[in-house]
Amino acid sequence: MKRALFLALIAGVLAAGVCFAQTKKASGNSKPSARQELSPAPVAGPSATAVPAHPNPYNVYGAQYPRIEEDNRVTFHFTAPNAQKVQVALVTSGQGSLSPLPYDMIKGADGVWTYTSVPQSPGYHNYWMLVDGAIVLDPATKAFMGYSHMCNGFEIPEPGVDWYDVKDVPHGHLEAANYFAKSINAWRHIFVYTPPGYDDKANLKSRYPVVYLQHGSGEDETVWFEMGRTNLILDNLLAAGKVKPMIVVSETSIIAGAGGRGAGPGAGAGGGAAAGTRGASGPAGAPGAGRGGGFGGGPGGGAYGQLMTNELIPWVDSHFRTLADKDHRAMGGLSMGGGITASVTMVNLDKFSYIGLFSGGSAAGFGGGGRGRGGAAPSGTPSSAPAPLAAPATLDLKTVYSGAMADPAEFNRKVKVLFMSYGTEAPLENPEGLKRHQEQLTAAGITNSYIYLSPGTTHEWQTWRRSFYTFAQLLFK
After folding, report:
1. Is residue 95 a contact partner of residue 1, using CB atoms and an 8 Å limit?
2. Distance separating the N- and C-terminal Cα atoms of the chain
3. Considering the entire predicted model, what is its pTM?
4. Is the pLDDT confidence value at 379 over 50?
5. In this predicted structure, what is the pLDDT of residue 94?
6. How many CA atoms, within 13 angstroms, populate the side-chain half-sphere of residue 129?
7. For residues 351 and 415, what is the distance between their CA atoms, to the nearest angstrom?
């Protein structure tokens, strides 16, 4: 996990980001797009001024706790005068596990229990209370979906970084929508971001490219906007002239009647296995895990891939002013959502030209990435942190990524950007495996891959915010 000192030491080296992409020319008559330089997300520099102590920004009106201390520790208060034991469950920096652990709180004479954590890494974090063994939400803080149940959240500021904050710039519109999927006889719920000016009279004939984003295990269609702040990131990038206006669509990959799971071999949305148990096909301690969609998810990209291409995309194209062709359509996902993204896109290259795999979905090996963020056991029991998997010793283009790369020149022609990212912090992320994997792709004639390593972060929202910021600037150029 990232620590403030570590971040300060490496930020100067890695803040500019590293693009390990090669420029080897593809064979055949394909004409891949000209390579672009990565524009990585700014990170805190070593001289950044610490943010003074303040209430958690997700607190309800007037609530002072949780409180974010100046050194990034978090102080929690919880009133339970009749409880025998109260704990706060969270994934804390340096823990080396994806599952939250329980930390004992101390009871005061007034019935208020308190606990102050170790310094936490910048970005969004989930937590919840355990009162005599039962999961209880903190009433002082807003609740969000994570770990297959509702969680509270807190935000640690990254000093000097504001590209995902609300600014005085034109803002896009975020709406919740429902559509009926005939193939499964069910209503589906989605979130759609339209860029600033979309509804202006002067723009009513304008059409826009679309990005489809997938959440991680144990999460849902809300998280890319609630935790990921995707709408604010795009508002700020647009105001700076760094991206083209685009529509963003987020949907859950959970399909009722499909075992609660979406596409991907063994990967599932929603997780739900207890910590320390074996997931769908992942190792112990990897709830709801699978090896991601980089290895194929069945015909059409699996159950969710078929739903997306046959139902969701046509509905979006008919209800929003989209540019309804592959050159103006992208898909990306985090962790398990990266696996789903690979499963869907690699067998539907007639529908997608831009692919983003954040901490999962690539054949680089997954470390903690790709395992998803499945539900911890109610007790907060720790899960093991398996060693990272290595990139395949050899790359079989006929089988990897559902065989989409069997003809490298054809893949280069169809896919304008294959973007893959990890945080730099092993074992929960696999940055070295990703670098080796891109070397293999380049040697095999795949020239359109980009990789981004988020400095000092692990399997967490700051990695995925930075990944999307970087990915978005490669789109639709």
Report:
1. yes
2. 35
3. 0.84
4. no
5. 67
6. 22
7. 10
